[in-house]
Amino acid sequence: MQIRFLGSGDAFGSGGRFQTCILVAATSTRFLIDCGASSLVAMRRFGVDPNEIDAVLLSHLHGDHFGGLPFFLLDAQLVSRRVRPLVIAGPPGTKARTAEAMEVFFPGSSGAAFRFASQTIELEPDSPAAVGGLRVTPYVVRHPSGAPALALRIECDGKTIAYSGDTEWTDALISAAADADLFIAEAYWFERKIRYHLDFQTLRAHLGELRARRVIVTHMSEEMLGRAEPLGCERAEDGMVIVL
């Protein structure tokens, strides 16, 4: 299983990074974890064909995590001429919010009949769901976004990826990350406490409880990016590729 960080940035482009978008290439499927507003640009930059993506998993409905979806869908319809089916899975409210975003950006676009089959799955907290060939379990975290914000536990090819999304510390992350092969965690600041976001010192204090085999931090502010000292875990970079 190959994982590529197409975007590892925060909402404000700190460090010149693309917004959150992580591509996972498994044996029988390729999917995105989040699709921030800059994601289609990042795909072009790193030579990723959007038509090869089978599913998009969304942690929450803020623009830097799902705002690229209207562009992705319209590219599929008008530019890439997609025929491959697509599954979108996210928190309750995903279908309506996606349509609203499309209407704001491109009026009339939400009612267009796509040439490819698409399905939107609204994930129920704490309930595993089949999303294509994936088993996805969402956990509610603390990050207001007009709909439940979720941490995601994704099982595929005998591997487990956990992803915090955006959140302040909550014990839901323990369930999401337990014994995962990889935990991708927000670390917005090093030690400064900000409501609804996770700082690195708090994350580090809980690593023993999380029990993930590997931890990579992402969604870092300028302050985090400017710290030169070793953190004791890996930092995401745009374009970074790892193999599980």
Folded structure, characterized:
The protein has a single domain, classed as Metallo-beta-lactamase, Chain A. It has eight helices and 14 strands. The radius of gyration is 17 Å and the shape is globular. The strands form two sheets. The chain has a seven-stranded mixed beta sheet. The chain has 244 residues and is of the alpha/beta class. The protein starts with a strand and ends with a strand. 22% of the residues lie in helices and 26% in strands.
List the helices and strands and how they pair.
Blueprint (H helix, E strand, L loop, with lengths): L1 E6 L13 E5 L4 E4 L5 H7 L9 E3 L5 H4 L2 H11 L6 E5 L3 H12 L12 E5 L6 E3 L2 E7 L9 E7 L2 E5 L8 H6 L4 E5 L13 H6 L1 H4 L4 E4 L3 H4 L8 E2 L5 E3 L1
Parallel strand pairs: 3-4, 4-5, 5-6, 10-11, 11-12, 12-13
Antiparallel strand pairs: 1-2, 1-14, 2-3, 7-8, 8-9, 9-10
| Strand order in the sheet with the most strands | 6-5-4-3-2-1-14
What is the count of distinct domains? 1
- Indicate the mean pLDDT: 97
Number of helices: 8
Structural class: alpha/beta
* Level-2 CATH architecture: 4-Layer Sandwich
- Unreliable spans are none
Instruction: Characterize the largest beta sheet: strand count, sense, and whether it forms a barrel.
Output: 7 strands, mixed
Terminal Cα span? 5 Å
Instruction: Give the name of the CATH superfamily.
Output: Ribonuclease Z/Hydroxyacylglutathione hydrolase-like
Radius of gyration over alpha carbons? 17 Å
Q: What level of helicity do the residues show?
A: 10-25%
3D shape: globular
What's the count of strands? 14
Taken in chain order, the helices and strands follow as: EEEHEHHEHEEEEEHEHHEHEE
Per the CATH scheme, the topology name is Metallo-beta-lactamase, Chain A
Strand percentage: 25-35%
What is the C-level CATH assignment?
Alpha Beta
